[in-house]
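Would you mind giving me a polypeptide sequence along with per-residue C-alpha cells?
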Amino acid sequence: MDRSNRLLYPRTKIDWGPGENHICLRTSTKNYYVIELFHQSPTLDKLIPLFINDINSSPNLFQIYYQIAENLTQIVLINNYPAKSGSGQGINDVFLTIDDFVGSSSRIIVNLNQSKFRSQGCKLNMSNRGKIVEIEGIINNKYIIIIDITTTTTITMITYYNEKSMLKNLQY
C-alpha cells in the first residue's frame, strides 16, 4: 500500500494493482471506489428517482470505508453509484399497532389511510399512545383492511380487580 494514503485508509487494503489504483474494496461481484472519486459520479449532485428498497438494500458504508464513513452520512450507494438526493413515490399511510389485551399475542398491525387517521383527531406523533380505537374492516389473509375507525379520547369507566378481588369502578 502506498504510504501517502495510510492516513485515509489505515486498515483498508487498497488494490493498487496496475491501472487499478482507484479501487478501495473488491468483492466477488463489485469494486468499491475510493471516496476521492465520488465527485466524478454522474449521480452525486443530481436528483435521482429511487425506490425505498434501493435505500434499504444499499451497502453499509462503515463496512467498506471504515471510519471515513462518518463523513459520508448524507451519501448512499445505489448500484455502486453515490447519491445525495433522490425522489420517490408511495402511498401516505399510517401503521397502527392495536392490542385488545386478551392474550400474550393479541397485537395486530393495521394499515390506515393518513386522511382517515387525521379525521379522528389523531396526530402523527406518540400522543396517540393509549387511545382506545374501534376498527371495522375486512379480514384478508390474517390482515384487516380498515373500512372505518373511531376513537375515544377519554375513558368514562374502567373496571378492575384489586388485590383483595373486590370489584372497583373508576370514574374519570
